[in-house]
Structures are given as C-alpha cells and as structure tokens.
Amino acid sequence: MANDKTEYQILIVEDNPGDFALIEDFLFEQIIAPQIIQAVTFSAAVKILNTHKFDAILLDLSLPDKRGESLIREVIDMSKDAPVIVLTGFVDFSFGVKSLSMGVADYLLKEDLNAMSLYKSVIYCIERKKNMSDLLQSEKRYSDLFNMSPMPMWVVDLNTLEFLDVNRATINHYGYTREEFLTMTLKDIRPVEEIPTLIRGVNEDKLKPDENSRRLMVHKKKNGEVRNVEVEIAPIIYKGRRANIVIANDITERLRYTKAIEDQNERLKEISWIQSHIVRAPLSRIMGLIPLLNDLEETGEEREKMLEFILTSAMELDEVIKNITDKSKIEDFVIITSPGKTEK
C-alpha cells in the first residue's frame, strides 16, 4: 500500500506500452500521487525536457529514434540535474558499468524489477543527487569565500608542505603567480633561518589534528622583502589529503607603529626626568640664594660671589632648558595616526 505522499515529478521515456504500464503500476504501489509524464520517442522527450523539470527520469535504452550511448549522453545533458535511471531488458554488465561512468544514476534490469526495488532506486537517486547538489553549492560557497577574502589564504599539505590552493589576495601580496605557488612549499616563503621554526610548528599541528592554532611568523615575498605575519591555522581534509587552511595577516606595519610609540614614550620619559630632576637643581640654588641676598648687609665681595653663583645657576638652567627644547622639537616627533600611517 502506497504511503509516500511526495508529489514526485517523474518522466518515463519508454515506447513499449506494456513496460510503461508495469512501471507506472510499480510507482503507484509505493507513491500515493506521483506526477508521471511519458515520452515514447527521444524527440518527444526533448520537447518535454525543454519545458519541464523532473525529480527523476526513467529511461529505456531502445527507442525508435535513438538508442545506446548517444541516447544516454543527450538525455543527461538535458536532464537539468534530475537523476537518470536506465531501465533495460538487455543483460550487459560491462555496458551497465560504462553507463554509470557516463553519469547514469542507476542501471536496472526490467526482468528483476519490482515495486520496492524501483521505488528504492528512485528515492535513493533523488536524495543522492540532492546531496551532491548541496555539496557542490557548499564547495562553491567555500570557493567564493576563499577567493574573495581580502586576507591572504592558502591550503597546504600537512605532510609535504606543498601549496594545494591559494586565493587572489595571496598572489597579490606575495608576488608569485598561482602556477608558481602550486609548485612551491611553505619553505619557499620563509627565510632560511626560519625553516626550523616552521618545522616545529607543523609537528605541533600534527600532534593536535583537531585544534586550531595561531602563530607569529616571518615570511618572505618573491622580491625578497621580509614581513612579519600572524597566521591562523585550521585543519581540514582537502581532496582526500590531510591539510591546513591558513589565513595570514601581515602585521609588519602594526609592529612598526608599536615600536614608534615605544620610542617616543622613551623620549618623553627622558624629557620628564630632565624636567623633574636636572632643572630642579639650579632652580633650587637660585631660590636659596634670593633670601640670603635680602638678608645680606655687606656689599662688595660677598655680594659679588652670590651674584656669580646666581649667574652660574641661571646659565646652567638655561643650558638645561635648551637641552629640553632640542629633545622636544616638534619636527623630530612622528605624529602617528594609525598603524602604517605616520606624519612628520
């Protein structure tokens, strides 16, 4: 008794009325309301396929106007991704295998056919085709995200370190063509002295096959320019190979920015120390001499010595102020607005 309520759209390309009636009965035994259309010739099937989309196509291999391999190829080309199930009365195992390699979803002998075997074939082929379509869509989304990413990304074989795939940003950033990258390994973008660090990192990844990692690395472009890079690494299986997918973030300018800030902070600390210690010494002496001048009754030699001390301290203070001025000239400071952007 039929219990599948799905309204499958099924095209049966069959010129034998008896075979068509049997196939139709088998389908109605398992599916409550299949939407079935028949084509008795290849030319009739072409017209129908040009205007309809089906969930499955059941194809007899011996039609009045076409048969065999050419029939299979042309129906598959027009199938609009619907699975094509071949139904034949001829027992030819080698041709059955060959037809599957041509893209046929299943190959069934009419003499072995029954309601359940036909139903299972139709349902399995529809689901398999759907899953394949979903997989292709998923791969396309991955490919789009991979290639459209503004960050350099690549896939590398975990055992050989060969590049398996690179995106456009990697090509633009490192200067190699895609063809060059696919003949290279990770060692080719590392300075020689950094290769031991690379090997250690790869060995760590092998010990933790399910964990992501992040590392700071030194990379070398095609023109020999050395860059500091922060990489994020995730394990994947790529076309059956154990691999890592890597996102690289060039942080060279950020590090320069940080270094510039640190250098300027050191200069400001030095100026602050001068102001708080060296300036205070002569200033304290002057401030200490002023009350003595007010209380001094004598004139002459003692007054002259005090004035000399004041002058010496004032000159010392002037020298310190000049030194501070030299260290804090505005043109010597870099005005840092953001990483990679500086102004004088």
Element pattern in H and E: EHEHEHEHEHEEHHHEEEHHHEE
CATH architecture of the largest domain: 3-Layer(aba) Sandwich
Strand order of the largest sheet: 2-1-3-4-5
Helix content: 40-55%
Count of separate structural domains: 3
Mean pLDDT across the residues is: 83
Put simply, the count of helices is 11
- What is the terminal separation in angstroms? 86 Å
Overview of the molecule:
- The chain has eleven helices and twelve strands.
- Residues 335-344 have low confidence and may be disordered.
- It has helices at 17-30, 42-51, 68-78, 93-101, 115-148, 168-174, 178-181, 195-207, 252-278, 280-295, 301-327; strands at 9-13, 35-39, 56-60, 84-88, 106-109, 153-157, 163-166, 213-220, 226-238, 241-250, 335-338, 341-343.
- Helices cover 50% and strands 21% of the residues.
- The chain folds into three domains: 9-144, Rossmann fold, CATH 3.40.50; 149-250, Beta-Lactamase, CATH 3.30.450; 254-343, Signal transduction histidine kinase, dimerisation/phosphotransfer (DHp) domain (Helix Hairpins, Orthogonal Bundle).
- Helix 1 packs across helix 5 (115-148), helix 9 (252-278) packs antiparallel against helix 11 (301-327) and helix 10 (280-295) packs antiparallel against helix 11 (301-327).
- It is an alpha/beta fold and 344 residues long.
Provide a compact summary of the structure.
The chain is an alpha/beta fold. The chain has 3 domains: 9-144, Response regulator (Rossmann fold), CATH 3.40.50.2300; 149-250, PAS domain (Beta-Lactamase), CATH 3.30.450.20; 254-343, Signal transduction histidine kinase, dimerisation/phosphotransfer (DHp) domain (Helix Hairpins).
